[in-house]
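A further point concerns the way the authors explain their paired sequence and structure data. Each protein is reduced to its one-letter sequence and a matching series of backbone shape codes. An entry of this sort, consisting of the sequence and the corresponding backbone structure tokens, reads as follows:
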Amino acid sequence: MVTLRDKLTDDIFNVKPKIVINATGLWIDFANRSIGDDTCFIGGPKGSHLILNQPQLRRALGENESFFENKDGRIVLIFPLLDKVIVGTSDIPTDVPQQARCTEKEVDYFLEVIEIVFRDIVVDRSHIIYRFSGVRPQPASDTDTTEQISRDHSLRIFESGQGLSKSTMCLSKSSAGQTKKR
């Protein structure tokens, strides 16, 4: 049984759906738990970015993007955004997407990366005008690194009794062979 409320009239309706469509992306597992099904489909990495106001670095980039693999295997991008520069992404696994924040450790990581690529240009915290984080919905996985995880989309359909209490369709960025067991 599902209780719905009409936001315009405040009327309440109880319905028994034949199928639940869960298209909540990154929050698929949270939504499934709210209806009594404990799943672990999504486990995407947090990606933080910095926006820098460093004219010398902006001029050095021109209209080009610097895209490379850092020594730890993570892909880092440094690219122009109007008269500013964006640096990202940190690609760190997280289980709590709503707590994604760009940490001081990530800032240090980005500043070290810029120093490796642009040795003659000084970039420090004073050049940061904005920082932000997001979480990429990817399948929960036991892989050693986030870059090994599929970025494909999938549709999973479970009939009632096949691991979920209700017939459920889950739309997500995942692939069948890469789910993580809880």
